Amino acid sequence: MITPVILAGGSGTRLWPASRQSFPKQFTDMVGDESLFQATLRRLSGEGFTAPTVVTGGEYRFITAEQIDQAGIKGATILLEPMGRNTAPAILAAALHHEANPDAIMLVAPSDHQINDTAAFAGALEAGAVAAARGEIVTFGITPTSSETGYGYLELTSEPELATPQHLKSFVEKPAEEMAEALVKGGKHLWNAGIFMFRVGTIIEAFEALVPKMMMPCRAAVATGAEDLCFFRLGADAYARCENISIDYSIMEAADALTVIPVSCGWSDLGSWRAVHGAGERDENGNALSGTATQIDCKDTLLRSDREDTRIVGLGLENIAAIATGDAILVANMDDSERVKDVVAELKIQNAPQATGFQQCHRPWGHYETLSLGERFQVKRIMVKPGGRLSLQSHLHRSEHWVVVAGTATVTVDEDVRMLAENQSVYIPLGAVHRLENNGKVPLTLIEVQSGPYLGEDDIIRYEDVYARAPEGAFEAA
Asked: What is the pLDDT of residues 398-449, one digit of tens each?
């Protein structure tokens, strides 16, 4: 049996504005009708797999759990990192969590990659599992289809044979265009997919030998971790002492011998808008359209709108990526799509909220979206899922009006508990202890009008919360 370890903590800056820190690309339906994370879960489930272990950040815990449930995956373990420390500590923590079963075969996979040929990938995994059971550290190399400069490369000692274990000669960092062309023509190089397989005991021994300073804090993070609802929180103080380093630099490039399984499976890391353009369906002129997008006389262009009320139209464009969300638009030459992370960095310097957050903010009970914001007022649209329940809370600086648009609401205001149907409303005075619940079977939608001198999400005193969230914080409000 193979135990999938799925890494789902990335912030996804390379696909801004559709992917942002508050809701990164792995949880988004970049290609197809389900998120990349859910596609990964389905691909690594069923016969031959145990329930997965997912490593993600604390701020993504509820969307992770929700998407696991939506995908129909049972028995998943969700490890929460207190802070991002790159892939090496995340993988070591997962291995230590399974240390009681040292012969278990771990498959480490990113949550945000696309694989079209699942049969070919399954064949490669079968070959990899045999090698891993022998105590080998296995990595998977993708047969290159072009001279990509955005990927690292794996150099083999001989020409690759699909689904056949082979010896790795060296790693090659992301090359310049001329070198990339030479590597592909040479026939002995594969793209580095960042997918690994090994016994639990093997990878722990590798860390002990190659990164011994990480062992003590990572062990302590697991030992001092605690169950929290359906999650396992790693100990924050100990995990903070782990070096911020990738598995590639810490283990793979330092190990004496690695095994490579070549595979051709329609793989893409979807790490740029050019990659998304190449992965989607295109018309006869090479145009890929998504959402409410229209093209006229365009060529090799990507047009995407994530909102029904925002139409994007391309006229006479060539080699352009144009991405529209509710609060941001990116227009870029496809050749510059690898530089989108520079856009995010610049927006952070400008303190633009669009750098990291969306207008629509996801919560464990549903989501809300700011419709209008001005001095001393804010208007939101709130959706509460059936069974959803906001925390029992009060505010120091604002009062609120709630108007039910669809569904029914159970509203608590101090000692008063009442039911509200469509077109009914309630006033929440400043300082009143209140709560909103959806005890019905359909989603509840309401409009909230806030008024007061300060309308920040941290203006909250939480008295009771079924989701066991922190008392306050930008990602935790309501």
From this structure: 999 999 999 999 999 999 999 999 999 999 999 999 999 999 999 999 999 9
Mean pLDDT of 374-387: 96
Q: Is the separation of the CB atoms in 384 and 365 below 8 Å?
A: yes
Domains in the chain, CATH or no CATH each: 2-268 (3.90.550.10), 273-348 (no CATH), 360-464 (2.60.120.10)
The span from the CA of 92 to the CA of 204, in Å, is: 7
Distances (CA, A) of 263 to 114, 196, 302, 433: 14, 13, 28, 58
pLDDT in tens, 262-295: 999 999 999 999 999 999 899 999 999 999 999 9
